[in-house]
Design goal:
The chain has a single domain, classed as Up-down Bundle (Methane Monooxygenase Hydroxylase, Chain G, domain 1), CATH 1.20.58.220. 85% of the residues lie in helices and 0% in strands. Helix 1 runs antiparallel to helix 4, helix 2 packs antiparallel against helix 3 and helix 4 runs parallel beside helix 7. The longest helix has 37 residues. It is elongated and about 65 Å long. It starts with a helix and ends in a 7-residue tail after the last helix. InterPro entries: PhoU, PhoU-like_sf, PhoU_dom.
C-alpha cells in the first residue's frame, strides 16, 4: 500500500506541475496578445516540448504502477484518470502553441480581436486553474460546476464572429477571409475549454467510478 500510495503521489505531483506549466503557456499567450513579441511567442512554442516530456513521464509512472504494484480498483481509477488528464493537458498546451504560431506570422492584430482573445484566454486560465485545484482537492461539487464556465468562452467566440461579419470597413471577401483566420486562431481557446471539461469528467471518474459527459 505504501508503495502504490507513493507512486500515486508522484504521479499527482508531476501532473500538478504539468498543469502549472500549461497555465504559464496561456498566461504568456495573454502577454503576446497584448504586446506582440516574436521571442516570447517562440518561447511558448518551445515550452510545448517540456509539456510533452511530462506527459511521457506520467505515462511511464502509470505503466510501472500497473505492471509492478497491482493497484486495487480505487487506485486503478486514479492511475487511469491521471493518464487521461495528462493527455488533456498536453492538448491544451498544443492550443497555446498553435496561437503562438499564428501570432508569429501576423504583422498586426486588431485591438478588437486582441481584446476578445485576451478575455477568452483569461477565462480559460481561470477555468484550468480551478479544474486542477478540483483534482487536488477531489472536489465533487467543483467538478460539476466548472464546465458551466465554458459557455462564457463559447459566447465570446460567437460575439467576435458576429462583429467581424458586421464590420463595414472591409469588403465582403476581406471580411470573410479575416473571419476564417481569426476564427481558426480563437477556436484553439474554445477547444481548450472543451478539454478542461474533460478533465472534470476524469476527476469525477477517479472519485466516483462513474462516467460523465459534459458535452
Amino acid at each position: 500500500m505504501i508503495r502504490i500510495d507513493g507512486k500515486l503521489s508522484q504521479m499527482e505531483q508531476t501532473l500538478v506541475k504539468m498543469g502549472n506549466r500549461v497555465v504559464s503557456m496561456h498566461e504568456c499567450v495573454c502577454e503576446v496578445l497584448a504586446e506582440p513579441n516574436k521571442e516570447r511567442e517562440l518561447e511558448i512554442i518551445q515550452a510545448d516540448d517540456r509539456i510533452n516530456h511530462m506527459e511521457e513521464e506520467i505515462n511511464d509512472l502509470a505503466i510501472e504502477s500497473l505492471a509492478l504494484l497491482a493497484p486495487v480498483a480505487s487506485d486503478l481509477r486514479k492511475v487511469i484518470g491521471t493518464i487521461k488528464i495528462a493527455t488533456e493537458l498536453e492538448r491544451i498546451g498544443d492550443y497555446a502553441k498553435n496561437i503562438a504560431k499564428f501570432l508569429i506570422k501576423q504583422d498586426h492584430l486588431s485591438d478588437m480581436v486582441a481584446d476578445y482573445a485576451i478575455s477568452m484566454e483569461k477565462d480559460l486560465i481561470t477555468m484550468l486553474e480551478r479544474a486542477m485545484q478540483c483534482m487536488v482537492d477531489q472536489d465533487e461539487e467543483a467538478a460539476f460546476a466548472i464546465p458551466e464556465s465554458d459557455s462564457v468562452i463559447n459566447q465570446q467566440m460567437k460575439d467576435i464572429r458576429a462583429k467581424l461579419l458586421a464590420d463595414d470597413g472591409e469588403s465582403r471577401e476581406d471580411a470573410l477571409k479575416e473571419l476564417f483566420e481569426i476564427s481558426a486562431m480563437l477556436r484553439n481557446i474554445e477547444r481548450a475549454g472543451d478539454h478542461i471539461k474533460n478533465i472534470c469528467e476524469h476527476v469525477l471518474y477517479m472519485m466516483k467510478g462513474q462516467h460523465y459527459d459534459f458535452g
